[in-house]
């Protein structure tokens, strides 16, 4: 078997090497095609048994309004029973999954959170037709991963997980799953891109990047594997970009290295844990004075959450984070994913640019909170983003160069800045009676005042009026 695989790989390599004239003369085109065909057959034989069909039943509650009778319509008789009611419905779904681990008689199946979710009934159908009822171990909407488990003392194949960090553009890839209920479907293509980010506004999880492939992925493929030519799982198929609802060659998979960590956490604790820094950040804004040295990339910290790991470690508004450990941060999405991969409680070196100088700050990351007080706008300091004036901003707002050089871009609703009355479009002239004309000067004075006392005074220009607004931390 090893000799056969070696022959297949050798044939492919020789056929693709430029200038290998002598080798190509010995190998006719049919031999090369048959070698490639045999590789795809072998991968399919190895992978199909570890891919399962996942059928789920979820109970959802919906609001309904009973139909009004003719008597109610004409005579307006109040009917205490004819009011909005809540009814429970069964919602059925189907997707794919991968057998990723076995511990004694417990067999674990990895799929997507949007497939398993909060399902109360999970039916697993193996490639050979065997069926098992499973239970949910844990799920994580932040990465769209979920794990289920069923029990059996029978022999069950387990997938081989590869290394998604080794995936490169141009690699051959196969997608396996049960699109539209057509079980055990295999499609092939290549890796089109790596490190893709989900589009904003589409409810695509942002705590991971994605592998892009042109191997056909359709509805029902979700949770199935994306595999390489060695039959190793390198990704978990999760979403597509399409204007028709069907595959147009833009499929996306969660890197398997992200899934490895989630599997361990699901089994150990029943949930996923992500590192948390506690900042509100974005890509560094355009700065005419170049006062923040945005050419180095990174992510600018606009706001801090009170009591967050970032605040405790000494990170300040206006800092630009350019590295986490040994990883270079190119933009705010890089920072989000790098922090997410950190274990809560881990002490990590953050490379920060402050006032033009680079320094290292060690942060002990926390655990990313859910929706609640920890991330409420009221806990955000100062609760606004500030940018330097550009020619386009002056033109759009019909401002002159005499109107100031630092302007508020956005104010978070419910934050201290919003409660104090600061607004988007306010031009900041002074901070605690010190004039500011660059972002560096603004953040220097903001942080200096914040460290000295609880109150910061802003002199702002709004329309043709100068105002003094105090902000209490």
Explain the overall architecture.
Helix 1 (2-16) crosses helix 3 (29-47). The longest helix has 19 residues, at 29-47. It is elongated and about 75 Å long. Helices cover 22% and strands 37% of the residues. It has helices at 2-16, 21-26, 29-47, 70-75, 113-116, 256-269, 309-313, 332-340, 391-397, 416-420, 439-452, and strands spanning 51-64, 85-103, 106-111, 121-125, 131-140, 145-151, 172-177, 185-196, 210-213, 225-227, 233-240, 251-255, 275-276, 279-282, 299-305, 320-324, 327-328, 347-354, 357-364, 366-367, 380-381, 384-388, 406-411, 427-431, 434-435, 455-462, 465-472.
Highlighted features:
6-stranded antiparallel β-barrel, elongated, alpha+beta, 7-stranded antiparallel sheet
List the helices and strands and how they pair.
Layout lengths: L1 H15 L4 H6 L2 H19 L3 E14 L5 H6 L9 E19 L2 E6 L1 H4 L4 E5 L5 E10 L4 E7 L20 E6 L7 E12 L13 E4 L11 E3 L5 E8 L10 E5 H14 L5 E2 L2 E4 L16 E7 L3 H5 L6 E5 L2 E2 L3 H9 L6 E8 L2 E8 L1 E2 L12 E2 L2 E5 L2 H7 L8 E6 L4 H5 L6 E5 L2 E2 L3 H14 L2 E8 L2 E8 L1
Helix pairs in contact: 1-3
